[in-house]
Design brief:
By secondary structure, the protein is mainly alpha-helical. Helices cover 36% and strands 6% of the residues. It has a two-stranded parallel ribbon.
């Protein structure tokens, strides 16, 4: 995939809380993000994929982060990132690559 820029003025983060103790109501960060946060699921091949696909359909730039999602089986992760992801995601990276790209802006 091509080099992706993440301009600070137009970049948003979608955070997923797999244990529901950080972002969910009553979580450690919830009071700070309540006005802006949306809760989503965890599975790469279901919740993450459907949310990302919909965001792409709405015209958002979508980046999938391979090592920041999970699935019940390796085959499900493979489907989400290698088969389905390239049909709607503009970039598929790992956390290190994303952090390097974010630091450039």
């Amino acid at each position: 995939m091509s080099h992706t820029a993440y301009p600070i003025a137009t970049t948003a983060y979608l955070l997923v809380d797999p244990y529901n103790d950080f972002l969910s109501e009553g979580g450690k960060v919830y009071p700070h993000i309540e006005p802006i946060a949306a809760q989503v699921g965890l599975l790469a091949n279901t919740c993450i994929e459907s949310t990302a696909r919909y965001a792409s359909e709405l015209g958002y730039h979508v980046t999938l982060v391979r090592d920041a999602t999970a699935a019940f089986r390796h085959e499900m992760m493979h489907a989400a990132h290698e088969l389905n992801g390239p049909t709607f995601a503009h970039s598929i990276v790992d956390t290190r690559e994303l952090l390097l790209a974010l630091q450039q802006h």
